[in-house]
Amino acid sequence: MRELPSKESALFKQILARLKAADQILKKFPEHGETLAMKGLFLNHMDRKEEAHDFVRKGLRFDLKSHICWHVYGLLHRSDKNYGEALKCYNQALKFDKDNMQILQDYSLLQIQMRNYEAFNESRLRLLNLRHNNQRYWIGLAISYHLLENYEIAEKVLKAYVDTLKEKPGPMNFEHSEMLLYHNLIIEESGKFDKALEHLESIENDICDRRSWKEKRAFFLLKLERYQEAKIAYEDLIADNPDCYDYYNGLLLASQINTNERFKVEVDKYMQAALRKGVPSLFVNLKKLYADPIKEDTIEKLVEEYLQNLKTCNTFTKSSDAGDEIEEPTAYLWTLYLLAQHYDNKRDTTRALKLIDEAIEHTPTLVELYMTKGRILKHGGDLNNAMKVMDEARELDLQDRFINSKCTKYMLRNNQPEEALKTIGLFTRGDAPDPLTDLIDMQCMWYALEEGECYRRQNNLGKALKRFHQIDKHFADITDDQFDFHTYCLRKVTLRAYLSMLRLEDQLRSHPYYFRAAKNAIEIYLYLKDNPKSANGEESQNYGTLRLPRKPKVKPKKLRLRRQKKVRVNLLTSPAKEDQSKKKVQDDDPEGEKFLKNGLQVEDPLGEAFKFLQPLQILASKRIETHLLGFEYYIQKKKYLLALRALKRAYNIDKENPELHVNIIRFKLEDYLILVSRLEKEDNEKREPLRDSTEYQTIFKVVNTVLPTILPDNTSLEVYTEEFLARNKGSMSHLLAGSNALLQINPDNKQEVTDLLMNSIKDEFLSTRTLKNCISVYEQLKNKLDSSKAEEFKNKCKEWFPISTYFKGLDD
């Protein structure tokens, strides 16, 4: 039944406000599909999700051709963030009412949310054709063409809209100003900078956002190589806002300064002024220059000279130089501070510690000195003392949240999560149930990430996965939060900001926080795939810290009686008025056991890993780590062609990557042979071997086409690895990769590999001789090769890293 009598039809229109009205209709017409659907929508707003879906599905069963039923079903899916299913429902609704404005608007919002630009363009065109006097539809259509990079038509749409206006906007009209700047952005992104500058200057008197207008003008002048005008424009911007780095970068580009000739003079003046003022961030500002070894050496010589001169005559230059002024004692302090950071960056821990200790002796109340000492100790491998020194820094200024957060991070790095939570809790809201709840509410991702990695190091994989999933949820929430802006920004005509938001969201999951969390989660799930629960039901030794539920099972009747008794006691003992804000929210899974079946294993670890991997493949495809993780995943899935594709993509990004080289050798030696043997098996359902099938021929054609582009057919694996090592002389990470590859190629060739690793003692490896690399070399020597050589290498490491607790701990 579809048509309702007039009385029931009038009641139907009031359903959103009156649920009883729906019940009245359904008493008389229990099979009216649209009423059932609307009742479901109302229940959905009351958070009765399951009932809501049941009513809407029932409504669809009774009226499958109702656009209202399909529209409501789409709204339910949209509220559940299930955008794919919502799109299908809207598509069905439009089949039965193709010109429904509300459905078309909702449909277009989902299309832009899902970044289906072509379909979004079609929907916007239909909306404009149906109502061409609506400003938002004109703007929406222009944006759709812009997103499709069809700049010419986007321009024409905006011009056509302006021509349709009966009254021209007055001067300093904000919406019109934003429209004009958006028009200019379209011209800019089409690559026509001369036309963009001409257009920008023609709209000057209509623009409200003067700062944006000036920035664009300076940018266009620089792009058009009109350097003198660009220089004046950037100087004007710096006068307006002297704290913007982009303006200074623009000014430097416009000035065409040959930095190699003037570098020493300019950096000398800059450092002296900063040391005189006592700028703590001086090293951070200079650090980018260290990419050039010549500039790094120049800075070192200058600062060493400052230190010597300040010590002897209290001046930056020699006393014989004219115009010298006696410096304040703080100049010596900040020079010590800068030089300690410099040597820490060079990983000369002994020299750095000596300098920072002298600075602390000079001024024992300066917080920055203790923080830097903690950082030096951390880089030297002494995490415990680094944490203690950072805690000293925190106690010097208990009101400083930044130092508190730094101390918390060092506690987590030192595997002390309980202490870390207490420390960070000093700066969470006092009315929060507990510090962790407040940190989650505030989306404090650095803490979740560090704590997750801490639990992973402790092998508490349940809690680690819980933290990484929390980070994933934070990013999902940020993605969902953009939905409301699809209509808001068109209504308010904040088009440039809207476009920036879309582009930010498109690369959101390439953010370092998400990438680290996803990488950790994927590696844990791949580990769980290789190390499932043992066959006899006992806990694997690798799950030593994963906790099983210890409470005995309680029969339902006893459990119900126990709960009723507890409620009665609470009613008798609780005060009449309780501060609801301070009620502790009970975490139903504090150990993260829901991420591990029975606290021990995951039902589908590879499926869970792919949930983290897929966003990286879409949004972080330019990072080699994405494809290296993809390779491991596809090998586990036994999808060898996809694994080869991951290798090829990684090779295109950085063919000299150490981990990539090991994976190439592994694929050729193991996975390629597995693929061959699998394909050569006879198919039981066929008489001919699989070798003669089209599938076999296609797979081998792909493999034999792609693999030689990475590993040439006429090159042996030994020669390929030797060439790899020759191209990367002086790199310990490449030396490690080469040794692993040679062991895979010939496990008996241990003496050659041992000699190769012992070469890392030579001075040519000094620049890459990090603590992490040295630990890896030592473990390789000890566990796989020659323990006597491992002992010799360990003694060398103790000289290089005298404060490292790792090598000290080996002796203990």
From TrEMBL:
<dbReference type="Pfam" id="PF12569">
    <property type="entry name" value="NatA_aux_su"/>
</dbReference>
<dbReference type="InterPro" id="IPR021183">
    <property type="entry name" value="NatA_aux_su"/>
</dbReference>
<dbReference type="Pfam" id="PF13181">
    <property type="entry name" value="TPR_8"/>
</dbReference>
<feature type="repeat" description="TPR">
    <location>
        <begin position="67"/>
        <end position="100"/>
    </location>
</feature>
<feature type="compositionally biased region" description="Basic and acidic residues">
    <location>
        <begin position="576"/>
        <end position="591"/>
    </location>
</feature>
<protein>
    <submittedName>
        <fullName>N-terminal acetyltransferase A, auxiliary subunit</fullName>
    </submittedName>
</protein>
<dbReference type="InterPro" id="IPR011990">
    <property type="entry name" value="TPR-like_helical_dom_sf"/>
</dbReference>
<dbReference type="GO" id="GO:0016740">
    <property type="term" value="F:transferase activity"/>
</dbReference>
<dbReference type="InterPro" id="IPR019734">
    <property type="entry name" value="TPR_rpt"/>
</dbReference>
<keyword id="KW-0677">Repeat</keyword>
<keyword id="KW-0802">TPR repeat</keyword>
<dbReference type="GO" id="GO:0031415">
    <property type="term" value="C:NatA complex"/>
</dbReference>
<feature type="region of interest" description="Disordered">
    <location>
        <begin position="572"/>
        <end position="591"/>
    </location>
</feature>
<keyword id="KW-0808">Transferase</keyword>
